[in-house]
Design goal:
Strand content: 5-15%
Shape: globular
Number of strands: 5
Strand order of the largest sheet: 2-1-5-3-4
Bound molecules: FE2/S2 (inorganic) cluster
Number of helices: 5
Structural class: alpha+beta
Helix content: 25-40%
Length: 168
Amino acid sequence: MNGQHTIGVTVNGIRHERAVEPRLLLSDFLRHELGLTGTHVGCEHGVCGACTVLLDGAAVRACLVFAVQADGCEITTVEGLDHDGTLHPLQQAFHEAHALQCGFCTPGFLMSLIPFLRDHPDPSEHQIREALSGNLCRCTGYANIVTAVQRFTAGTAASANAPGGARS
Ligand code: FES
Ligand code: FES
């Protein structure tokens, strides 16, 4: 169609092709074109982190990326974290540590933390707080979020140390 570009992306393992306007934000593409409303939009200018998704494994702010820039990429949204209805261990840790308060910011926190924890499997509290510093929680629930991350890392360490266990 006139002025539109056809892009192909793989989102949570499913391939999608769509014709989009060049100005369409990735956040709007995910929410409105694909119906993946777990990616939340807060500030829409890169400050709050609510829209964070993984683009080829790296955390990016979907409100700062045009959908056309994601052409050919693999995207993971919060909807891609659970496995056959079982929460991702980090989601489970958030649940257990009461780290979801308003819940609006939660998808962004999770998606920022996934690559951080992949690269820092045993982070200090300071490193965790630094990793969280790009995501805003307006209800100041950071203490519980830090606890959730520590709970997660303690759990992965325990399973890695179990007979036959391995850190994933
Ligand atoms: S909505 Fe993207 S950083 Fe706030
Ligand atoms: S838990 Fe979402 S803003 Fe605090």
